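not sure who needs this but someone in the group chat was asking about Pseudouridine synthase from Neolewinella litorea so here u go. i didnt clean anything up, its just raw.
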Amino acid sequence: MADSISLNKFVAGTGICSRREADRWIEAGRLSINGTVAVKGNRVEPGDHVTLDGRPIGEQPPPVYLAFHKPAGVTSTTDPKDPDNLIDFLNYPQRIFPVGRLDKASTGLLLLTNDGDIVNEVLRVENNHEKEYIVTVDKPITDRFIQRMAGGLPILGTRTRSCEVERLATRTFRIVLTQGLNRQIRRMCEFLGYRVLTLKRIRIMKIELGDLPVGHYREMDTFLNHF
C-alpha cells in the first residue's frame, strides 16, 4: 500500500480530467480496477489495471502547462459538440483542459494543462489567487462607479469581495479579483447600469499575458512557482 495512490488522483494524473470529475465518474460506476467496479476510497497500486467505461486508462503523460491568449468567440470548453470549443481551436497534440474559464466574448489569459492536481490547487477559492482584467464600458466611468465596484456588490445571491479598481481612461478601468463568480465583472457593471464592451484578462496570479499574440500560446515548466 505504500506505493498506492487514490483512484481519483491516479485518473487525474493521466491528464483526462480533474480529481473532481474523477470522483463523479466513480460515483457513476464508470471506473473499474482489475475488472471490479470502483467505489469511493479505492486506491491504485503498481500493476493495477484501471478502465473507464471498459477502456484502459493510460499511464501519466509528461505534464503540460500552457498560457494561452484566448480570442473572442472561442468557448472555454473541451466539449466537441461546441463548434467553437477551445480544444479544436488549439489543436494541441496532447489532451489538455482549461484551468477555469473566460466567457466566450472575453479575451486574454487562459491557463491549460493535463495536470488534474494543479487544477484543484489553482481553482480553490480560499487560495485568493489574483486575476487582473482590463475592461471597457459603454459610458464614462465616475468616481462613484469605482468606489462601488471596489467595495463589493450584491450579485448571484451573494456579495462580491472588496477588490482593487483603477480608472485608466474615460471608459476603461483595471480590476483585480480574488474570486470567480459566473460572469462576475459583467454582472457587477450591469448592476451599476453599465454595459461591458471589451473584457481582457491580463494576469492570473503572477502569470502575465504580456505580449503573447491573440490565438497563440506559450509553454511553461509549471504553474506552481507563479502562485
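also Residues 19-27 form the longest helix (9 residues). if thats useful
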